[in-house]
Amino acid sequence: MEKKKPGGGIRFWLALWAAKLSVPVLKLTRHNGTNFPGSVAMKLCPDFLKYLAMPERIVAVTGTNGKTTATNFICDMLKNDGLRVVSNTAGSNMYAGAATALMEGVGIFNRCRSDVAVLEVDERSTRFVFAHVKPKYLAVTNIARDSIKRNAHQEYIFDLINRGISLTPDTTLILNADDPVSSFLGEDFGGGDAHAPNRRVYYGMAGQGQEAFVPGSPDFPVCPRCGTKPEFTLRHYRDIGTFRCPGCGLSSKPRDYVALKLNTAARRLTVEDKGGEVSDYPMLSDTVFNAYNTVMVIALFREMGYSRERIAELLGKIKITETRFTLERAGGLDLYTYAAKGQNGSAASAVFEYLAKEPSKKELVMLLDEHYGDDQRIETVTWLYESDFEYLVRDNIVRIIIAGHRYLDYALRLRLAGFPEDRLLCLEDENAIPEHVETEGIDAIYFLHDVYTVDKARRLRARVMEKLSGGGKNEG
Amino acid sequence: MLIELLYPEVCNLFGDLMNVEYLARCADAQVVRTGLKDKPRFVTEKVDLLYMGSVTERGQELARDALTPHLEALKARTEAGGVTLITGNALEIFGQYITDDDGNNIPMLGLFPTHAERHLMNRFNGMFLGKYEDITVVGFKSQFGHSYGPVERGLFEVTRGAGLHPGERFEGIRVKNLMATYLIGPLLILNPPFTKRLLKLLGQGDAELSFEEAAMDAYNDRVRDFSDPKRGFEY
Fold first, then answer.
1. What are residue B171's DSSP bridge partners?
2. What CATH number does residue B196 fall under?
């Protein structure tokens, strides 16, 4: 079913056709996956999205960490369910990216050809996108420390998303009850927007008996209502857990969908619905942060009317996108590429906690936050001091290799964290990494990469695999 | 040596708090963390260094409210030459007022003659290269506002990058030994020569810094990098 929109006049039609025409041109020139069509449309008709036909069902996903992974999950599941899905998974999560995706879902006469749109929306873009795009559901992963250049701090992002929410009161919010920041979206703690009337659904996770590391730089340091330091009775990772404010009594939201048990060995997740029904679902990785993504997706699909059995079936068919995680074996070792996001202290720390707790003996190759070939894009090194490198000081982190432009900063940070000098190698030339990789006494090598360094990580891993194979060891 | 860290539950952005941890390691200092609801230690006893770091916008008002009852004690401490270091937008708390996006003037402590102008949709990000006395200082800025007004003495002299506001030759403000700068993050870790000078001011003599050689290597590399005229400085 399609939402009918009023006509936008000649500017809209020119914008739509120019955007449509740009798609094959970009494909021919191998520039597909960009926001160019949406940007062109917005230039020609700034209100382009106001007039563009859209499917009745639009799902938006936002939040600091995990939104790309969750959007991919949702998209793949809906496609596997036989629906015609448009999404910006291959493009940008800003306004032009949403416009590009939605434009691809209509014909040249602005007739909607898709059943559902799934949009990853950058937190700062929610207030622009939701001016004209009214999602039926908005799923929020979390709000945590992020790139300070763009996102400043959690309170700022909370207020911006709230502004976006205020534009779309009929949207159902799927919120993380265990995130003390984003779970209060739609409520006013001084950011200027009154309580939003949106319907809200909360997901979360029961205690799993594992103690989380306490973050050096917390995401939820004070109660937003009274300024008192909150008390946590449960932590899954960072400040994701259950809290109560001793000052005013503000506490975590009750969960409608709760993961009761994570069986990481069997990769199964037991979830209880708000009706009290309990079901088993596949888990897509052994990380607690991806378990949260999975519970969020289950809550969303339940709200969309899917049966528990069908959700389990659809989850069983998908896998984590290769830009986040890949595994190869060589020389008897597991060789991972693993996204850890530079410039983002919360994401890096969550990955460090996972690596510290995952028991295999491992060597880490860090390729985070490097020169991207454009000086203007280099941000501060302050995030190194918001990230918990201290978590890596464990016996199972056998060795760390740091290379690249900022190797001196990393070297200092890791030393200050207490990582032993004799297990740390800092190189300026990252191309020299493969010759320095040592395989003695380890089970795995993790190549930790940023969003922009995934290809570099794979190239270096390929060279290490070549070295391991050439060294006469058996291919795993 | 006693260091008092003011309001770490809100003044905790951008890794600023590592400055205190680093100083404590270098000088074997005791650190007291004073919360918003606590009475500051400097009011009743000698504190060698008072520190406050980067903060959210709502946190600025919480910190102002917490410090207001102790303003006279803070003034007396400053007048007596007490050493205080303020980093990031905590500087704005010590000015006259902050003008927000709607044109409202939010009153602040009034220790500095400056006021800040905040634009939440126009974040300023940049690098900084400057001088503290004869020492080269490097750093980073990421802020929603700049400060304006008559400043008798800046903390740093600008070589490259923005001062208290773009075009201003001073970065930061210094009143006796109260030192405030918009520079964020691990300022003292990034600048070992400045840290050594600060430790001297705190009566620690020529204290050796924690991992001084590694810190100097990173510092020298950054000074070279930031001195390169081809390098972009705002982003």
1. B156
2. 3.40.50.880
Classify B131 as helix, strand or coil.
Answer: strand
**Domain interval for residue B171:** 2-227
Q: Is the pLDDT reported for residue A202 higher than 90? A: yes
Which residues numbered 117-156 in B keep a CB inside 8 Å of some CB on A? 120, 123, 125, 140, 142, 144
Q: What is the mean pLDDT of residues B78-102?
A: 98
Could you report the per-residue pLDDT of A297-311, keeping only the tens digit for each? 999 999 999 999 999
Provide the domain count of chain B.
Answer: 1
CATH code assigned to A325-475: 3.90.190.20
Segment A225-274, tens digit of pLDDT: 888 999 999 999 999 999 999 999 999 999 999 999 999 889 999 999 98
pLDDT for res B216: 98
Asked if the structure places residue B68 within a domain, the reply is yes
- Domain extent listing, chain A: 2-317, 325-475
Residue of B nearest to A407 (CA): B218
Q: Summarize the confidence of residues A134-146 as an average pLDDT.
A: 97
Return the DSSP state at A112: B
Q: Does A4 have pLDDT greater than 80?
A: no
Identity of the residue in A221, A377, A416 whose CB atom sits nearest the CB atom of B211: A416
Q: Supply the DSSP string of B45-109, one letter for each residue.
A: S--SEEEE----HHHHHHHHHHHGGGHHHHHHHHHTT-EEEEEGGGGGGGSSEEE-TTS-EEE--
Q: Which of helix, strand or coil describes residue A92?
A: coil
Domain A2-317 listed as CATH 3.40.1190.10: yes
User: Which chain A residues touch B118 with a CB distance below 8 Å?
Assistant: none
